[in-house]
Amino acid sequence: MNYPHPIIAREGWPFLAITAILAFALQSFGLTFLAAIAWILFLFVLQFFRDPPRFIPSQANAVVSPADGRIVAVERVNDPYAQRDALKISVFMNVFNVHSNRIPVPGTVKSVDYFPGQFVNADLDKASTENERNAIVIETASGVLVTAVQVAGLVARRILCYAKAGDAVDKGQRYGFIRFGSRVDVYLPPESVPKVAIGDKVSASSTILAELVA
Prior knowledge:
Number of strands: 16
CATH superfamily of the largest domain: Glucose Permease (Domain IIA)
Structural class: alpha+beta
Shape: elongated
Largest sheet: 8 strands, antiparallel
CATH topology of the largest domain: Glucose Permease (Domain IIA)
Strand content: 35-45%
Strand order of the largest sheet: 11-7-8-9-13-5-4-15
CATH class of the largest domain: Mainly Beta
């Protein structure tokens, strides 16, 4: 699941190659204006697929953010994937955020489930239950369950998840990617203590979303 950080996510390499070839081709034919547009597109793709290494807090009970973005929900709900009451914290990613997804807590992947669905704006609450999504349930060494759900958005059309049931995973480990704007929901035990509020900006692996109660 891990690979040496190349700064630019491997998921973006084909898109970078295509846009660069297109830009060079248009430039070689003297189509300066179209080539300029193609180079602008190349720069957009380059920034979208950046994948910088991140600091990971060592605090044992910390739940780190699985994604870059903005907090759009901190609420008590039912976790439909682990069938329990839960604290849900949702991170919305726009097209300018890093879209590499990280593991929120260390443990063992108990299940991975994909659900086809719609592509409504990921900023809306109904996206959590109606959009295309992929859910992984992680069990920590102490038996706590944490669910992370990759949710496709209005523009996103591809959820990539490299985790498999039975995998041992580390906090902050890269496990997936969502292309072009999306959302990640994290479901925690209801007694967990949130450390973020709606509107806060967070960084994958570096920002502590909540603390688990032993």
